[in-house]
Design brief:
2 domains, OB fold (Dihydrolipoamide Acetyltransferase, E2P), alpha+beta, Thiolase-like, acyltransferase activity, 485 residues, 25% helix, Peroxisomal Thiolase, Chain A, domain 1, ChsH2_Znr, NA-bd_OB-fold, ChsH2 rubredoxin-like zinc ribbon domain-containing protein, globular, 5-stranded antiparallel beta sheet, 9-stranded mixed beta sheet
Length: 485
């Protein structure tokens, strides 16, 4: 039986009130007032689609034996690398084995469900099992454009397998059209879109019903069989029209989270699906529909196993963990839309030594250290000789992962001289509960909110951006530990 075995989600901590954006740019496009309600989720300066996908993947893997994972499928239209397997970076950051299958899915914002279908069909064919499907996007709208207000950042992840299934896969129906609504060229930074009327009347109003009707005919199900119907459409009037046309009741209609997060692109239907799974009961049927260059429609039935899942943040917990980003220009600088002077120290040429990264890949990307087999002392980075002065055993080490461990702040400082687009740069020493001490940058926090002894967890983040070569380097940063909802 192929289906969903686990789920996870991630919404960045910072939220930008759309009223602030409109207050700054509304003079250029007054009609944007129609899109100025609520807030949009905004990735931090050190986040991108890879780091958010990792966060969602970590959430989805709670309670899952990582040694059983057979693949990682990553879907996005804003992948940091065009020629480097982005899913390979995610695989290492999730602490998974090297001997697994990994693939990137892109080219259209229904790539998330396409990746999900590939995993479901692979599991059903017994070619692979326990595939992590993660989707994430950080799409940009040009300042004063509707997209700037409509878009938001988020990620979702699902573990697809054949055992302990929480939502059994019942069938799918797909269409593919070269329907151009949103598009970006080879070097484009910002999303471009054709007329809203075109997108609403020919796109959503015709392509979504075709996919839904195709699925219902293929599976023999009726719309009344579904407890929740998930489909992305931020146009309020068009959504009401679609609900009426398809017979979707208000109770069935899954919130599109436009007011809380925004339209997240590739992961959006999966983000909504994760939210539906959080609230689902055994026996519920869920209809999942994506949109973009056609549609994918998938049917699932929730099983009793959903009651056995380990606690996780998912979308509800991520939404609860929020902080206001009360400065619109800070968002512009974080996204490299507005140039900002980070000082002379920012002119240092940061470039990746690929041979060194290869040798240290598990330490850097997976935060693997060592544990002494003789006395049990753990340490990061990896050591050949035990750091315990009462032991000193040589070459008796086994790997030990720090990425899922809790630490405490031993010391910290705010550095206003360090190059940063979010000054001051905050960093300090973290001591892990089971041993091991290392200096980390701190993120998703303010200097005044920190204190020695405060518990922290680590989060996979962008360590630096190499402007000359247009690439990013990744490592782990410390984040104050917050209670999950």
């Amino acid at each position: 039986m192929a289906g969903i075995c686990s789920y996870g989600g991630y919404v960045p901590r910072y939220r930008l009130n759309r009223g602030l954006v409109y207050g700054a740019m509304g003079w250029m496009n007054p009609a944007n007032i129609a899109n100025a309600r609520g807030e949009k989720a905004v990735a931090n300066f050190d986040e991108d689609s890879i780091t958010m996908a990792v966060a969602a993947g970590i959430d989805a893997l709670k309670g899952v034996d990582k040694s059983t994972v057979g693949g990682v499928y990553y879907a996005s239209t804003t992948m940091p690398y065009k020629e480097r397997l982005n899913a390979g970076i995610i695989t290492a950051a999730l602490g998974l084995n090297d001997q697994i299958r990994a693939a990137d899915f892109s080219g259209g914002i229904k790539a998330g469900t396409t990746a999900l279908l590939a995993a479901l069909e692979g599991v059903a064919a017994k070619g692979v099992d326990n595939v992590v499907v993660t989707a994430s996007d950080c799409r940009l709208g040009k300042p004063a454009s509707p997209q700037e207000l409509i878009f938001g950042d988020a990620a979702a992840a699902l573990v697809v397998g054949s055992e302990n299934v929480i939502a059994e896969f019942k069938g799918a129906f797909s269409t593919t059209y070269d329907f151009v609504d949103h598009y970006r060229g080879e070097t484009a930074k910002f999303d471009r879109a054709w007329e809203d009327r075109w997108i609403r009347d020919l796109g959503f109003a015709q392509l979504v019903p075709e996919a839904v009707q195709g699925l219902l005919e293929k599976t023999g199900l009726a719309m009344t069989d579904f407890a929740k119907v998930v489909y992305p459409c931020h146009y309020g009037a068009a959504r009401k029209g679609l609900n009426k046309k398809l017979g979707i009741t208000p109770e069935q209609d899954q919130s599109n989270l436009q007011v809380e997060i925004g339209e997240t692109g590739t992961p959006h239907s999966l983000v909504m699906f994760v939210k539906a799974l959080e609230e689902a009961k055994p026996g519920d049927k869920i209809l999942l529909v994506s949109f973009g260059s056609g549609c994918d429609a998938l049917a699932f039935e929730v099983t009793e196993n959903i009651t056995k899942l380990a606690p996780r943040a998912a979308i509800t917990g991520s939404l609860a963990n929020r902080a206001d980003l009360d400065n619109y220009t800070k968002y512009l600088i974080w996204r490299d839309i507005l140039p900002g002077d980070a000082g002379l120290r920012s002119e240092e040429d940061l470039w990746t030594r690929w041979s060194q990264l290869w040798r240290k890949r598990r330490e850097v990307l997976g935060l693997w250290g060592t544990k002494c087999q003789a006395c049990g002392t753990v340490q990061y980075p990896k050591q050949r000789i035990c750091v315990n002065p009462e032991c000193g055993a040589a070459d008796q080490m086994e790997e030990y992962c720090f990425a899922d461990k809790v630490g405490k702040i031993a010391s910290y400082t705010g550095d206003n001289l360090a190059a940063s687009v979010n000054p001051p740069a905050i960093y300090g020493q973290v001591v892990f509960e089971e041993g091991g001490k290392y200096m980390f940058d701190f993120t998703d926090c303010d200097l005044d909110s920190l204190a020695t002894g405060m518990p922290v967890v680590v989060s996979f983040r962008r360590k630096y951006s190499d402007k000359h070569r247009d690439i990013a380097g990744y490592f782990w940063k410390a984040v104050p530990k917050r209670e999950e909802a």
